[in-house]
Amino acid sequence: HLFEWQPALKNVSSSWDVGIIDGLSGWTSSVDDVPADTIARRFRYDVALVSALKDLEEDIMEGLREKGLDDSTCTSGFTVVVKESCDGMGDVSEKHGSGPAVPEKAVRFSFTIMSISIRAEGEEDAITIFQEQKPNSELSCRPLCLMFVDESDHETLTAILGPVVAERKAMLESR
């Protein structure tokens, strides 16, 4: 989906049509003797967030209608509250099939859009136009990164999630 950040995100590619990317962002070496290209796959955070918002378009429009607002009312921007989670998926050694050898455990980093609110022209308080009804449901959870790593391996988790954190920080400094 076409979108633009103002100002442009720092240290993040300006290309918006990013699909699944290597979780180690170009590392050529191995981590713990596992080929780097098998260890993680992820979406760029802002691309995944925009995609999730686009998927919620009907719910957002319904929320505006329920509050008696038009989409042109949202001139001062909007606020999206996101809940992140990172959870171990247990032993996957039996599940990966006949591909390359992978570590035996996997970790998933994901997010859920909890609420969306807007500040209407001339109003002091924000108006909530979307609230996730089932925040702990698998259906509202948006996977961002899948890593073949033990959840107790903080060194590898930090290496893989470092760029995700940088993208989140860049989004907070833009709109």
TrEMBL record:
Listed InterPro entries: RAG1, RAG1_pre-RNase_H, RAG1_RNase_H
Species of provenance: Misgurnus anguillicaudatus (Oriental weatherloach)
Protein name: Recombination activating protein 1
One MF annotation (Gene Ontology) recorded for this entry: double-stranded DNA endonuclease activity
All residue ranges annotated as the V(D)J recombination-activating protein 1 RNase H domain in the record: 80-174
Biological processes annotated in GO: adaptive immune response; B cell differentiation; chromatin organization; T cell differentiation in thymus; V(D)J recombination
Pfam families xref list: RAG1_pre-RNase_H, RAG1_RNase_H
Sequence ranges assigned to domain V(D)J recombination-activating protein 1 pre-RNase H in this UniProt record: 4-76
A GO cellular component annotation in the UniProt record: DNA recombinase complex
PANTHER family in the cross-refs: V(D)J RECOMBINATION-ACTIVATING PROTEIN 1, VDJ RECOMBINATION ACTIVATING PROTEIN 1 RAG1
